[in-house]
Design a protein that fits this description.
Elements lengths: L9 E4 L35 H6 L33 H8 L5 H21 L4 H5 L1 H16 L1 H15 L6 H12 L2 H24 L6 H13 L2 H14 E2 L4 E2 L3 H5 L3 H18 L1 E5 L1 E6 L2 E7 L6 E6 L7 E7 L4 E7 L3 H8 L4 E5 L3 E2 L10 E7 L4 H8 L5 E7 L9 H4 L4 H12 L3 E5 L2 H13 L3 E3 L6
Length: about 475
């Protein structure tokens, strides 16, 4: 089928047939307590957000249809206990491989900068030696672009609309997905490189201090010591280009001198990108309900496209929290917040009538579902929330959802069948569904296991990486 026909073909794949029943286990405090009945083999296109909110049995039938996918052997209940979770450093260096796309981007970007820096220091690139601050600001611009939610929203949209056609090679799509998911490698590398170039600029300034002023040296030193690059960048640029070493004074024609310099315009772009998300901050009315003490449902006006995430906060100056958005794309959308921290617990105990939001929502890995023709989505725990929008609104891809939510939405009953082998289930489902790619949302270990198992079977798979 053509990728842009707006197909509503979706399937929810239960993990068991005759044994499908509710588990009597206790609710986990780490996942939502919302009872969603996703047990039917055929998706009901009439399901709505109120159905999900109220936990209505729109997805159930009196007699469940037998499984299209055979259940893989469950893990033995007597298996050895799992080792303690790996440290963050070991996950970065070992668990996710030594040659991930993230690390390749980091190494390539850093190698280019180090090479240019060495050539500048040895006098082989005169331009870089004369303008080290420009290269530092250029790196700051690159790291800002790679993390700008507004810019990435446009980039993801372009990727889906340019590559989301059936005739586009699958290899190109998966390469693009890997690149977009790993832009943090460029962000980290450019941050280190910006500091390196700024150190070089400071060294040259101190070496030729007769051609500079104490203010410039002081500001440059403060930037390095405080690492508040974006805050003091304007002061550094203005002081540098307004100072005239021949008169040992600052020129009054600062405006005309600034607009002729590349550093000025790069700083303008960086400033706009940093400010942009904050000028869209608004205080909006919300409706919050708590099906239990373990989670809250936050409802907002306005429909949102599938695969989009948003940030909310109790105050514009406090920390911001990102959640996946559930929406039918029509009149409203909602977020599901597990009560695991002070802010999310307060939503249950004392639900506010208004919250602060950033109106520029950002695209995550699930948004790239729209770039493929047939895709398997694998979710455990509250990770299923980010995928629900693909079941509630038209999607250009044919979507198959393999859900194994923990404790409350039970499809595979661990009390009867033991812990399932989600990795093998994902491989089997992907093969039978004919999925081009698998996207998983789970805890770090679960996501890694599913991705590794799929890749070992020759199936492209993506899941959250360590800095997601």
């Amino acid at each position: 089928m053509e990728n842009h026909e707006g197909s509503l073909s979706k399937r929810i794949v239960p993990n068991s047939g005759d044994l499908m029943q509710r588990s009597m286990s206790h609710a986990s405090s780490h996942f939502c307590d919302l009872e969603l009945e996703l047990e039917d083999d055929d998706y009901d296109d009439d399901a709505t957000l109120p159905d999900i909110e109220e936990g209505r049995d729109e997805y159930e039938k009196p007699d469940p249809v037998p499984l299209p996918f055979p259940l893989p052997p469950a893990k033995s209940k007597r298996e050895k206990p799992k080792p303690p979770p790996s440290s963050r450093l070991s996950v970065i260096l070992l668990d996710q491989g030594l040659f991930t796309v993230y690390k390749r981007l980091f190494v390539v970007s850093l190698a280019v900068n180090i090479t240019l820096l060495i050539l500048a220091a040895t006098g082989n690139i005169g331009y870089a030696r004369k303008r080290p601050a420009l290269f530092s600001i250029g790196n700051i611009l690159a790291l800002t672009l790679s993390r700008s939610e507004a810019v990435l929203r446009v980039v993801f949209w372009l990727a889906v609309n340019c590559l989301g056609w059936s005739w586009v090679p699958l290899r190109l799509k998966t390469m693009t997905t890997s690149l977009l998911q790993s832009l943090g490698g460029i962000h980290s590398s450019c941050g280190i490189s910006a500091v390196a170039w700024l150190i070089y600029a400071l060294v040259l300034t101190l070496k030729h201090r007769e051609n500079t002023s104490p203010e410039i040296i002081g500001v440059a030193s403060a930037i390095l010591s405080l690492l508040v690059l974006s805050c003091l960048l304007w002061a550094f640029v203005i002081l540098t280009f307004s100072y005239d070493p021949t008169t040992d004074s600052y020129s009054k024609e600062i405006g005309s001198r600034l607009i002729k310099n590349q550093e000025f315009w790069l700083t303008v772009v960086i400033t706009i990108l940093i400010i942009l998300p904050w000028i869209t901050v608004r205080r909006v009315p919300v409706r919050i309900s708590s099906p239990s003490g373990h989670a809250s449902i936050i409802k907002f006006a306005g429909g949102i496209k599938a695969g989009i995430l948003g940030r909310i906060s109790p105050s514009p100056f406090s920390e911001w929290h990102a959640f996946g958005i559930i929406s039918d794309g029509k009149d409203e959308h909602m977020m599901l917040a597990g009560a695991v921290g002070d802010f999310t617990k307060s939503l249950v105990a004392n639900p506010p009538s208004h919250l602060w939001v950033r109106q520029v929502h950002f695209a995550g890995l699930p948004y790239l579902t729209n770039m493929y023709n047939r895709i398997l989505l694998v979710a455990t725990g509250s990770g299923i929330c980010v995928f629900l929008s693909f079941l509630l609104q038209p999607c250009s891809a044919e979507v198959c959802l393999l859900g194994h939510p923990k404790e409350k939405v039970i499809i595979h009953d661990t009390a009867v069948l033991g812990r399932p082998n989600v990795s093998q289930m994902s491989v089997d489902a992907a093969k039978r569904w004919g999925a081009e790619v698998v996207i998983v949302t789970s805890n770090p270990e679960g996501s890694r296991d599913v991705v590794d198992a799929c890749k070992a079977s020759g199936i492209a798979a993506f899941g959250p990486i360590w800095d997601s």
